[in-house]
Amino acid sequence: MSSRTASCSCGQLRIQVEGEPRGVGICHCLACQQRTGSVFAALASFAAPFTAFGTATEYVRVGDQGARFIFRFCPICGTTVFHTVDGRNESVSVAVGAFADPGFPAPRLSIYESRRHQWVQLPPGMITFDRDPS
Ligand SMILES: [Zn+2]
Ligand SMILES: [Zn+2]
């Protein structure tokens, strides 16, 4: 099975994941905008096993549906590399940009359309949700 490694910008915090992503999506919610500093987040979900290397600082944010998202970011450079949902360690969500791979599979899902910047245009065929579908 092929593996991929995502890294923070200084290289201290990395995560290795196996196989193809279970899903790739973008999220326009305001929390993701502030978390990333960008206008939307791009995330890829991978099934376990996954292996993290380096030191991560954790930040817990409770989602609109009550899930506890545990974000891991590098304490040196501040990049948010991955997150899990508390109690659900069978999968991990990794920031697509942290793979530094322009050939990474394109997103299929677009979440929180209600918060999308109007100038952001999506490719045809995306599955869209006005809010968090989970
Ligand atoms: Zn770093
Ligand atoms: Zn979001």
Summarize the structure.
Helices cover 5% and strands 43% of the residues. The chain has 1 helix and 11 strands.
Layout: helices, strands, pairs:
Elements: E1 3-7, E2 14-18, E3 23-27, H1 30-36, E4 41-47, E5 50-53, E6 57-62, E7 68-73, E8 80-85, E9 88-95, E10 109-111, E11 127-128
Parallel strand pairs: 3-10, 10-11
Antiparallel strand pairs: 1-2, 2-5, 3-4, 4-9, 6-7, 7-8, 8-9
The structure holds zinc ion (ZN) (2 copies).
The site of one zinc ion has 9 residues, from loops.
What does this structure look like?
There is one protein chain. It contains one helix and eleven strands. With 134 residues, it is mainly beta. The strands form two sheets. It has an eight-stranded mixed β-sheet. A three-stranded antiparallel β-sheet has the order 1-2-5, with no helix packed on it. The model has no long low-confidence stretch (mean pLDDT 95). One zinc ion binds at residues 27, 29, 31-32, 41, 112.
User: From the helix content, strand content and strand pairing, which structural class follows?
Assistant: mainly beta
Question: How much of the residues is beta strand, in percent?
Answer: 35-45%
Strand count, sense and closure of the main sheet? 8 strands, mixed
Q: Globular, elongated, flat, extended or rod-shaped: what is the shape?
A: globular
- How many beta strands in the DSSP annotation? 11
Could you estimate the helical fraction of the residues in percent? under 10%
Number of helices: 1
SSE order in H/E notation?
EEEHEEEEEEEE
Bound molecules: zinc ion
What is the residue-averaged pLDDT?
95
